[in-house]
Amino acid sequence: MKKLLFIVIAIAIASPLLANPTVMFDYQGTIYGINSSTVHFVSSNPAFSRDYSGTAGMYSALVNSGLEKVFCIDLKQNATTSAVPYELAAVRDAPRPDDNVANDVFPMNLAKAQAISELWSENIASVNNGLTAGAFQLAIWEIVHEEKGAPYNLTGGNGFWVTNDNSSVTLTNAINLAQSWLDALDGQISNPIALRAYVSDTYQCFIGEGTVPAPGAIILTSLGTAIVGWIRRRNMK
Question: Which of 11, 40, 115, 154 has a Cα-to-Cα distance from 185 of 20 to 30 A?
């Protein structure tokens, strides 16, 4: 009985470790980018809309004091320039649902996560200036925010589109480049790159390269082995 009580207590202590790992995330600003003029995110389930005018591009962040290159995957929240705790999560489990919107369409599903993985693996090597970084960010926003199952269309569509308010040639070129990347997605990933999401209930969510550690899995395996051993010994008595 005492051994069983010990196992129960050990599981209770280990449970918090099963949550997503946490890092200190300090948004630094734009590395490369363009003025996106105005991008629109509209959700029909639930009804929600937001217009964003600003920079689309590649951003930098200090993650536990290490500098990382990231892209935004959440148009519903704003970034912060302070170092704050973020959780690491699988891309399919991001962005974090908005607590203020019932039945939120986030997080994205596995199909969208796989599309981002293919986009990243096939094109990230060519992202090296404002035009390509802006195009890459627009393509990510399109995948994440377009209604599930809808075709990719950066100038129209059901959930996300871009308006070139100032008739910018650079933005037009970025839209065309992003659309060509999206049109080329065929579900085949030749050399996948490990990606992870940085998620927060309060601030903008991001995506970058890296894995999601799972320290709790090791503890659970050990506890499971201990429980099985205890049951076997108990049945032998």
Answer: 40
Q: Which two tokens stand for residue 185?
A: 């997605």
Strand order across the beta sheet in which 47-52 lies: 47-52, 38-44, 160-163
| Residue closest to 160 by CA, chosen among 99, 100, 108, 90 | 108
Tens-place pLDDT, residues 98-147: 655 544 567 888 999 999 999 999 999 999 999 999 999 999 999 998 88
CA–CA dist 113, 93 (Å, integer) = 9
User: Are residues 236 and 10 in contact, defined by beta-carbon separation less than 8 angstroms?
Assistant: no
Side chain identity at 202, as an amino acid letter?
A: T
User: Which tokens hold the place of 15?
Assistant: 């449970």
- Residue 209 CA, chain-centre distance (Å), reads 10
Looking at the DSSP bridge assignments, the partners of residue 25 are 63, 84
**Structural contact between residues 145 and 157, judged by C-beta atoms closer than 8 angstroms:** no
Give the list of residues 6+ apart from residue 236 with CB closer than 8 angstroms, or none: none
